[in-house]
User: Which sequence fits this backbone?
């Protein structure tokens, strides 16, 4: 099993990655004009934010200092969404594709964390969050598929 400091570091890495997801959904909401899609992205951002706060509470309970920032990679990804949306006139499909790509990164981070021998109570939280990320990913993919079909008939 990993030591106490390593658990805090792993949780902080997940917080950072999750904050990227939270900000990514918020950024995606800013780049669509469809009210339903905007609401979808904002609800997902809020749900991810709740997960972030739970992870931060775990870090605090372990005596650590939780991170409160996104990663450089996440910031760059959001800037890519900005650029791509601008170039494609806020194309919903482009924003959904980039959002799905961001969720793929988050899935990988959580799966990697679960490969480590975490304490059972921490592992349970990470596993529960992974299930939520999978749901988010599948929802984004489903919505993207709907927009793909809709644009095929335009």
Assistant:
């Amino acid at each position: 099993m990993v030591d106490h400091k390593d658990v805090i570091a792993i949780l902080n890495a997940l917080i950072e990655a999750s904050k990227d997801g939270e900000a990514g959904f918020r950024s995606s909401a800013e780049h669509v004009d469809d009210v339903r899609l905007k609401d979808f992205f904002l609800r997902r951002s809020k749900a991810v934010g709740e997960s972030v706060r739970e992870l931060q509470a775990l870090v605090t309970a372990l005596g650590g200092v939780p991170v409160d920032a996104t990663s450089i990679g996440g910031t760059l990804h959001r800037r890519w969404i900005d650029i791509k949306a601008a170039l494609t006139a806020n194309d919903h499909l482009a924003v959904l594709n980039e959002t799905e790509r961001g969720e793929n990164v988050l899935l990988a981070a959580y799966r990697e964390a679960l490969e480590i021998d975490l304490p059972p109570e921490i592992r349970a939280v990470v596993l529960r969050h992974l299930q939520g990320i999978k749901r988010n990913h599948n929802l984004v993919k489903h919505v993207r598929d709907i927009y793909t079909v809709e644009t095929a008939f335009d």
